[in-house]
Amino acid sequence: MALAFCSLRAEDSFKPGEIWPDNKGVHINAHGGGLLLRDGVYYWYGEHKTKGSGGNVANVGIHCYSSKDLYHWKDEGIALEVAPAGSGSDIEKGSIIERPKVIYNRKTGKYVMWFHLERKGRGYQSACAGIAAGDSPTGPFTFIRSTRASAGHWPEGYSEALKNGPVRAAGKNFSGGSLPGQVTLDELNIVKRDFDRGQMVRDMTLFVDDDDNAYHIYSSEENSTLHIALLSSDYLSHSGKYARIFPGRFMEAPALFKREGRYYLLMSGCTGWAPNAGRSAVADSIWGPWVELKNPFQGKGANTSFRSQSTYVVEAPGKKGNFIYMGDRWNPGNAIDGRHIWLPIRFENTQPVIEWAESWKY
Ligand code: DGJ
Questions:
Q1: Is the shortest distance between the CB of 220 and ligand 1 below 6 Å?
Q2: In this model, does residue 163 exceed pLDDT 80?
Q3: Spacing, Cα 30 to ligand 1 middle (Å)
Q4: For the chain, what percent of residues have pLDDT higher than 90?
Q5: Domain limits, the chain
Q6: pTM value?
Q7: Does the CA dihedral 95-269-274-360 come out positive or negative?
Q8: CATH code linked to domain 31-355
Q9: Distance (Å, rounded) from C-alpha 231 to C-alpha 254?
Q10: What pLDDT is stored for residue 2 in this prediction?
Q11: pLDDT digit string (tens) for 68-88?
Q12: What is the C-alpha radius of gyration for the chain, rounded to an integer number of angstroms?
């Protein structure tokens, strides 16, 4: 009698929300991730989650996978490992390492990784970026430092009145999802509060433009406002030039991409691990003005982005102009079982539209 043999293998299609096996038959463990395309190979970097409700902190590091077709992924191991618990390192086991993104610097030949970093035991109060670099796309990456953003620099267009005005943020309790009552963002003047220390960095992504300029896009000012910051030419620090966009809109989960010369952002609102309605925006220049569009998700489940939150947008291999939404369906009770929601993006003029599909191919 033949033995029943069951092994999980990836198929030539995307099945959003289902287990997505890698080449070893293991569900892909790369959450809040992003892709890098180098020499015809895609590298997927994401948070390696572990089992249970404690699995959202960094117990292992940043996981890397590779693929030529986006359907089948090879496990390339841990590209950046956490430091041992008790070592005092900024990236020690038990810290929070989220939304890693890797870009390649053509001038230096280095692979540069940025991520949202929260030091161990301080909740989400550090609000820093972590920076690591390596010589190979699969790593190992070496941690360089953690930093707030653009210390000692004002954002583009910040008014003299605010630069010289009062700061009313002291003693206020910030929930991360809304402003404390009875005070406006201008009155709080969080940019000025954080001027010397550097601006807060939470949910984030990176974007490299056609001219090789790279940008760091992150939730700042207690999550109330997104910042877009130009990186230095080696991509290892902020240049000091940055802009504030959507002040007071509490945007998270930014994914920036360029289509037909225009810049697009997919984002979410700010509700912790619980999903919410997606958001989208378009601009002719990366510095803005950014015009907020509609919730890109359409159909049943659109008000929760089909129970997902944006993390990245990639153009399909060999299909110029066909963009793919990458989102996370978080599972805070068992973090390792978070699912990947990849769906096609179509456009109604400049409005990105994402509809549900059980199974699809690009
Ligand atoms: C939502 C963010 O998008 C995630 O990256 C993570 O920071 C959770 N909030 C934590 O609640």
A1: no
A2: yes
A3: 15
A4: 96
A5: 31-355
A6: 0.97
A7: negative
A8: 2.115.10.20
A9: 17
A10: 44
A11: 999 999 999 999 999 999 999
A12: 20
